Amino acid sequence: MDIDYKAIGMRIKAARVRKGVTQGNIAKVTGLSTPHISNIETGNTKLGLPTIIHLANVLDVSVDELLCDNIHRSERIFHNELADLLQDCSVDELHIIAELAKVVKKSGINSVKKTRGRKSKKALAE
C-alpha cells in the first residue's frame, strides 16, 4: 500500500488553517520544530502514527480525516471536505468545479489516478 504523504500533509495544513494557527504554534504545542511541521505539510517527510495522532488531537480533527485517502470507508469525509470547499465559492467557481467533476466522472477514476503525482514536462526539464 502506497501512503500519499502529500495528501496527508495538505489535510494537516488545511486543518491548521481552519483552526487559525501558524506552523510555529503547532510546533510549540507538539514539541516538533517549525521546519518539521512545514515538511509534514508539504509531504516531504513521513510521519508515524504517534505524530499523526498528536497532530489530529491538537488540530481537533479525526485521524480518519487526515488519512481518508488511505481508508476504504471514507465517503463521508470526502463529502464533508467537498461541502467545506464549496461553501464560499462564487457562482463562477461553482460552475468550473461542476464542469471539472463531470470531466473526472466521465474519464473514470483510473485515468485520474494515473496523473496523480506526475510532474509536468516543464518541471521535469528544470
Task: Describe it.
- The chain has 126 residues and is mostly helical.
- It folds into 2 domains: 66 residues, lambda repressor-like DNA-binding domains (434 Repressor (Amino-terminal Domain)); 37 residues.
- Helices cover 71% and strands 0% of the residues.
- It has 9 helices and no strands.
- The longest helix is centred in the last third of the chain and has 17 residues.
- The two termini are 30 Å apart.
Topology, pairings included?
Layout lengths: L4 H15 L3 H8 L3 H9 L6 H11 L3 H5 L7 H12 L4 H17 L1 H7 L5 H5 L1
Helix pairs in contact: 1-3, 2-3
Query: What is the CATH class designation of the largest domain?
Result: Mainly Alpha
Broad shape: globular
Q: Kindly report the CATH topology of the largest domain.
A: 434 Repressor (Amino-terminal Domain)
Tell me the number of strands.
0
Outline the biggest β-sheet: none
Keywords:
126 residues, mainly alpha, 434 Repressor (Amino-terminal Domain), 2 domains, 71% helix, globular
Task: Offer a concise description of the structure.
The protein has 126 residues and is mainly alpha-helical. It has 9 helices and no strands.
